[in-house]
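Entry details:
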Amino acid sequence: MSISKKNFDFSKYGLANFQKKIGVNFLRYVFSAINKENSTEERFFIELEFLNPHIKPNEVVLGFEPRVNVSSGDLQSALLGNIAQSDFKGEDIETPSYGVIRFGCLSGNHSVLCHYFPCNQAKISTKPTKIEIENTVFSDKSISGEISLSESEVAKHPELFSNSGKASWNLTYEIDASSIKGYNKKNEKWLPLGIVSSFYGLIKFNDVEYAVLPQKSKGYIERFYLKDLPSTWFHLSSCDFVSLISGKKLHNFGFSIQGIFNNKLSVICNLGDDSFAFSANKSDRKYTVVCDCSQTPENESEKESMLHWSISLSSNDLILDVDIFSNLKDLSNRSLELSEGNRALLNLVQSGYGTGEFKLYKKVKKSIEQIEYAKIESAFCEFGKREIQ
């Protein structure tokens, strides 16, 4: 049902056209790695984004450059006409146009390192697909690169939305289950390319080495290009399942839930040898879905409180309930610029350590039959809202 266990030919799904798309163009990899010093498991992500490349492809234009400071006296004089309007310079608000590579750690200090570049600096080839930006490479089989930012650089430039630190990575990957059913509108797509993915290699973050092992990587890959990010953002994904019916690890199980598109979520699930997909496309809306993201319990201490993501889906023949919880201490915040400019951003809260339950039922005449009841670990969770700064 539109879900494949074969690797994508990325060039067929717009990966080679990053520089030509209007709006936001995004490729993201999420995976686990083992700390070589203490053997703990940590979650990371790597992203490649092109934002409004058509505006100024040869420059890096940040929409959150420091504002021009205007004294209250100058402002009053301008309003009273004592200073000519032509002589009075207010703040300039730029529409963003740039490419950016991000390396994120979802544990500890929840760092995100960002490297910006002019969109035309990217060298893109196809068959096989490869994107090269300086010493960073994204291909249909591997990713490699490095980022380094000093504390002084970050302190001087808050508009970078970056932490200080350094990271390098050299990873190969294989996609075990993928889909093109995510969301498809004219000139807009969301593709959960790697619902279940395996990564292998080495990363180094702030002088600590991490081993990335296929059987423990719990990988996920997605790609989307949109005119702008949704004003309300809801994301859940995981491929770490244990059946609460049999007690066994469920191999090649994974799901991805994304939106909100057209006031609806898209829900994609791979269940071993079976699968199903519900898309928010207007032409494919024969299902109802309700979602929520809220703190529970309310008004309690931060140590006890959790953020709760939930969805309930019903179609003609299936019922799906997913509940994911994340401790507040495991949450991180970050901001993504929106393509509209005007100092608008998507304020995100996210976690790589969500846990919860997956319940799937089949409708049989007037009764329901349970298909699977599973525990979910290592869920990647996000919730965000549009804001103006």
